[in-house]
Amino acid sequence: MRRNISDDTHPYDVPMPVNLYTIGATAAEIPAATFRNVNIGNLQTGARLQVNRPVFNQESFDSSYELSDPGLPLNPRQKLYKKGKSWFPPKIKWEQACSVQSAYAVLVRWIPILYWLPKYNWKANLLADVTAGVTVAFLNTPEGVAYALLASVPAITGLYTSFFPLLIFIFLTTTRHSTYGTNAIISVMTSKLVMQHAQDYLLVEEVSLGEQYSNETLSALETSQIRVASGVAFLMGAWQLIFGIVGAGGLVVYFSDQLVQGFTCGAAVHVFSSQLPTVFGIHGLPGYQGAFKLIRTYVAFFQVIHTTHGTTLIVSLLSLIFLIIIKYAINANQRIRAVIRVPIPAELLTVLLGTSISYAMNLHGRYGVTIVNRMPAGFPAPALPGIHNIMGLVGDTFIISVIALSLSITLGLLFANKHGYAIDPNQEFRAQGVANVISSFFQCFPSCVSVACTALQDGVGGRTQVVSMVHCTIILIVIVALGRFLEPLPHACLGAIVMISVVKLIAQIVQLVALLKVSLIDWSVFVAVFFGVVILDVDYGLAIGLAWAILTIMLRMQKPKVAPMGRLPGTDIYQRTDEYIMATEVPGVKIIKVNAPIYYANATYIKLRLYAFAELNSLLQKPTINNSRRGNRLVNASTQSGFDPTVAENYAYADRLDNISTIDRQKMEANRRPSYQFRRSSIAFRQSAGAPAVISLEEFDDLQNDSRTADQAAQTRHLIVDCSSVSFLDVTGAGFLKKTQAECAGMDVEVLLACASKSVREMLYVCGAGEYILPHQYFVTIHDAVLYAVNTQKQHPNTRILHNINNRVVRLTAGVGTSPRTEDNRPEDVPERSNDNGNAIICSGHRQRAAGYETM
């Protein structure tokens, strides 16, 4: 039910609900300096904004505009229950849940090709997609073979991995430009596990690859390598599938661009270094694992560099020169690209020339150059992946799956934003998981989105996943019929292809110079993950980079920006006083902005800054007078805890979650004084008290000008905390605000919260802050809170704000009428009760809606 704000509402519970303040002033009311060098864009000079509305605190605002969920805040158990009910709505009819439309919607969500393929524009997109598909296949075919050797598995498995995962991925993906298959970084990480666990799978006798397709056989070592790699692919796919089912797509936000760039740059150094033995033709170089792997590899490499195979090095250098000329001198030249339109497939030409020259010159037989040698035709028979040592692979496959997902989602989002469509990260997780799990039964090693192929597809004009269909068709032809022709291909050519493919990734390190000029923190994330990967290892470096990235967030939140704010003359806009020269503090009111969530790690820091800017530390050292029936009593507020021992018990519950205990509540109820309702109209109340009908901006300007020229600054009477940037609050943060309110009340300062979100207010309520921060002390805007504070100080210039034993705000007013009074200087209809000085005592109790006075 909507609660109307009645006229008899207490001025402190709902401050001036009928009073209106006007935002908007004539040019004469605003200083001329305000318009200096102001760029008003399309606005006309002299354009004004005028708003005429009541002054709201949070409670009156929620009542006036009907808060959608006005009930009491829910505790965590109730929130979980409510969330669970939303997952399983009870009113869905059985016929509706099991209808054809519902089944089709679920099917389309899991298999997106059913949605976009019937709508495919064959006339507009087919030619571009076919051209792009052929071009990408020419690149991916040699890369697949090369990356298979990089993963320490037979070359033929590279073609399998370029075909089976991509064929499944086409049906399940929501991205239009990603090409799925082999990836250099995932291959080098797979190689580490293959080299560690291949001996566990080593079989005594050779196992046939599939007699129905080929008479070729694999050695026991090659078979064990395939089994380990397929097992890694299976577990990696299982992790990805779990991520997709539980909806963990949001986790990729923790992989910032700098983290991904630093990681890929460092991993590319590993990929590049792994090809040194292949390019130089060095045999017997030990394969190191673990920390400082790269350093030990280079030390060993230079110790055996004298064993370089000359012919292999020549083949490698010629391949590298040929690739550099094609890729960087021709394809990167815009004038040449404008003529040929489609980039020259440098990798494919390298493979064709290398295979032809090797076959013609018999490089393997005459010169001892290592070649691919065996490329069986046809598909392998399905077989179970090697996962008998599953516990030894679970942790490593988890890391590989996370890296693969981060790379895939990063690329997917990049091209989706470029071309104006959306992707579903959770569906991408499911698509990659299913692709890896199924392909692991066909001797495939872990797959991921290919950076080079995806960039090439976009560069040559590919528009949809029809590109991948054409790509799959060409790979199928190579596997079935053309694979044997690649047997004379030298490993040196493949090593050169791998090295050139990661040059752009390594070149990302030049971004450090530009990044240092923009953000030191982002620069440090790049440096941490890069050197962690290069110096230690790929998995260690990723862990270090991710930990440092999260730590930088914590450090920034641990010491957030806390700054005083002031009002800009002639407006209701409040800005930081250290950023705007004309921002002026309102006398007697301190406005502090907290630019971060308040939680256990930063609560102490925020309190120190809050008290320093509000100039409350000096008040802690000043004795205050506590007027009571027993006479004047001097209370020293400067103790180690900030309280006098006689007063500290009143705030004993500031650090507790629960409300006041039953026993203590009974004691307080026994001491509670009777309250009396004052039923006069609040309008008459204010008019008789001399309160203005409208608090205008001009009065604010006069107050601010007076404060500038005053000999001494006005004593702080109100502290307004701008909570607009406080996104969440934990238990410690709630305790901090409760204790701050209690301490400030002991220093005659009232704390007001402005712009607090609903979640923050609910957290304060659940943590028992309702006994400290009363409903009328929450405000919708800073200006509303300032109006309340200024109006209070004008009506009651000598009011002292304390907390009584019931933790309720008490205002002691000395000699100033706060209400319509009778001849004996007491409110009408209120018994003649006052303190020793004849001062009326006004109390605003917890959750009081109507006006009331309470005597002591």
Features:
856 residues; alpha+beta; six-stranded mixed beta sheet; three-stranded antiparallel beta sheet; 34 helices; disordered N terminus; disordered C terminus
Written overview of the protein:
The protein is α+β, with helices and mostly antiparallel strands and 856 residues long. It is 50% helix and 9% strand. The protein contains 34 helices and 19 strands. The strands form seven sheets. The chain has a six-stranded mixed β-sheet with strand order 8-7-9-13-14-15. A three-stranded antiparallel β-sheet has the order 16-17-18. A two-stranded antiparallel ribbon has the order 1-2. Helix 6 (122-150) runs antiparallel to helix 19 (451-459), helix 7 packs antiparallel against helix 20 (466-482) and helix 8 packs across helix 9. The longest helix is centred in the N-terminal third of the chain and has 29 residues, at 122-150. The chain is elongated. Residues 1-38, 203-215, 622-695 and 801-856 have low confidence and may be disordered.
Rg, alpha carbons? 37 Å
- Shape, please? elongated
Structural class: alpha+beta
Largest sheet entry: 6 strands, mixed
What would the average pLDDT be, to the nearest integer?
A: 75
**Strands in their spatial order, largest beta sheet:** 8-7-9-13-14-15
Helix share of residues?
40-55%
